């Protein structure tokens, strides 16, 4: 390893230790208000009056917002179904587009310059790794397709699961 990579590794190790110690300090230290260096003083009466007026206004706004019924009501099951269908449609559209590109590439000779969609990172972002360029063609990575489908649906159902 070169000296710069060692320094980078030591920097990140120190950074992680520092952040870990700060988080553990905040989580584990019990602060006592009686021994706190910050003294809370009584505020004057005009400030209290203005604060109560502001609190009343905020409560009135909340009451008005609660009284307004929503123009539509969408159930969690409908949302889960719609998003699942959208995800499936996204994969189908990407697969169809890849087939069209494969046919177009088979008819013509390969372009001499490197295109932005020939990079693997493009396909990892656009198609979640389902379509990958291999041997100058776009092919379906079935392992990624099944894994992404299962992972996204698990995360999605956990999001709407009510404990």
Largest sheet: 2 strands, antiparallel
How much of the residues is beta strand, in percent?
under 5%
Number of helices: 5
From the N-terminal CA to the C-terminal CA, the straight-line distance is 49 Å
Strands side by side in the biggest sheet:
1-2
Run of helices and strands: HHHHEEH
Cα radius of gyration in angstroms:
29 Å
**Range of helix content:** 55-70%
Structural category: mainly alpha
Mean pLDDT reading: 78
Count all strands and give the number: 2
Poorly predicted runs are: none
- Cα shape: flat
In short:
It contains five helices and two strands; from the N terminus they run ααααββα. The chain has helices at 3-28, 45-67, 76-107, 120-126, 142-160, and strands at residues 131-134, 137-140. The longest helix is centred in the middle third of the chain and has 32 residues, at 76-107.
């Amino acid at each position: 390893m070169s000296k710069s990579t060692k320094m980078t590794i030591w920097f990140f190790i120190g950074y992680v230790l520092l952040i870990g110690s700060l988080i553990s300090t905040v989580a584990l230290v019990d602060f006592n208000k009686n021994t706190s260096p910050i003294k809370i003083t009584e505020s004057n009466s005009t400030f209290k009056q203005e604060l109560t007026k502001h609190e009343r206004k905020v409560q009135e706004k909340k009451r008005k917002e609660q009284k307004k019924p929503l123009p539509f009501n969408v159930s969690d099951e409908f949302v889960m179904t719609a998003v699942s269908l959208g995800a499936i449609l996204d994969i189908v559209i990407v697969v169809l587009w890849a087939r069209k590109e494969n046919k177009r590439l088979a008819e013509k000779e390969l372009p001499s310059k490197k295109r932005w969609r020939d990079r693997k990172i493009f396909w990892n972002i656009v198609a979640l790794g389902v379509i990958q360029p291999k041997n100058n063609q776009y092919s379906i990575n079935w392992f990624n397709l099944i894994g992404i489908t299962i992972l996204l649906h698990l995360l999605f159902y956990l999001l709407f699961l009510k404990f």
